[in-house]
Amino acid sequence: MLIGEVARRSGVSARMLRHYESLGLVRPSGRTGSGYREYSGEDIRRIFHIESLRSLGLPLREIGRALDDPDFAPSALVGDLIRQTRQRIAAEMELLTRLRRIDAAEPADWRDVLQAVAFLQALGSKSADARQRAALSSAEEVPVPVEALVEAVLRETEPNVAGALRWALARSGDGGTALLAEGLGSAAAEVRKRAVQALAEMPGGAATDRLRDALPDPDAAVRGYAALALGTRGVADAIPTLVDMIAEGRNDTDAADALSVLASDATAADQIATRLVGRLAHDTTGAPARVRLTQALADIPGPTASGALMELSHDGDRAVALTAMYLLRLRDAH
To answer: Start and end of every HTH merR-type domain (predicted)?
Structure first.
């Protein structure tokens, strides 16, 4: 069969057949009297084998080795192709993600595009300094892909870099709030903690709602960060967790400060005092915890807190009684 007929029947162009021949992949078995290439049935079968292996992504030179080496293992070939394909897919997905993020930043011109690319590359750098500079560059009107910024916030382990990233995210508007909320669903407590810390610096009611969602979190640190942030925002839902933090000695000073902010509302002040007193009376509350809880009553105004301190001044635990008496004197002085 002449080359033109082979090309028509196989779908492989004559030019490609000549290329195969130049690589030694398939050589016509004969020539006509006029010198034209003549392919045998075996030659044509080999062409179809070549095309089949090409469809799997195997390079032409590897195809020749696969067809000519009797000891070549097909399983090894397929395994390599699977690995290479996965690598290509991962690279393409990474490229797609980068393009989506650049598009979301709404670049106005090529300068914006190039700045966004440089920003993304710096965020992914192994250098903490480079990542921090990228976060701070958002103050220079660089188009910031918010999705990439959130991803960086949720994975960052360097405290200084993490702080810069949270600052940059807070400046970017409220677009990152919903993405941070997804971080609250992570199986990793560290990721949830980073999400809450970032939400604490985000403005607006949407961030406050997401912080409320974090209050029942099984991890104490996550609950604590959420409660402290909500306390400074005047959200009374944080009171039970803040009282728990004081009793357990976890960031108890910050928790007491947050309670004092909440206590500016008379209703909240009464609720705080009642909960502190209830925790003081609990059988499982140890002596150090009872002292901390008594100290927390210092900045809680109102008759409920004053009455509790009066009663505690006669407590059987001398440290609690002395603390209560001292706090009563301070209240009388004011």
So the answer is: 1-69
Residue 242 covered by a domain: yes
Beta bridge partner(s), residue 38: 2, 30
Interaxial angle between packed helices 239-248 and 252-262, expressed in degrees from 0 to 180 and rounded to the nearest 10 = 150
State the total domains in the chain: 2
Task: Kindly report the CATH number assigned to the domain that includes residue 22.
Answer: 1.10.1660.10
Residue 203 DSSP symbol: -
pLDDT for position 158 = 95
Domain residues for 239? 235-334
Give the end-to-end CA distance of the chain in Å, rounded to a whole number.
110
- What are the helix (H) ranges across the chain? 3-10, 14-23, 41-55, 60-68, 74-104, 110-123, 128-136, 146-155, 159-171, 177-183, 189-200, 205-213, 220-232, 239-248, 252-262, 266-280, 287-296, 303-312, 318-333
Inter-residue long-range contacts of 30-34, CB under 8 Å, 24+ positions, other chains counted: 32/2
User: What is the H or E stretch that residue 37 is in?
Assistant: strand 37-38
202: exposed, middle or buried (C-beta count within 10 Å: 0-12, 13-18, 19+)? buried
Gap between the Cα atoms of 171 and 180, Å rounded: 15
- In-domain check, residue 13: yes
Q: 3-state class of 30 per DSSP? A: strand
> Parallel, antiparallel, or unpaired: how do β-strands 30-31 and 37-38 relate?
antiparallel
Tokens 């970017």, residue? 172
246 in Cβ contact with 293 (< 8 Å)? yes
**What's the pLDDT score for residue 140?**
60
Cβ–Cβ contacts within 10 Å for residue 225, how many?
A: 25
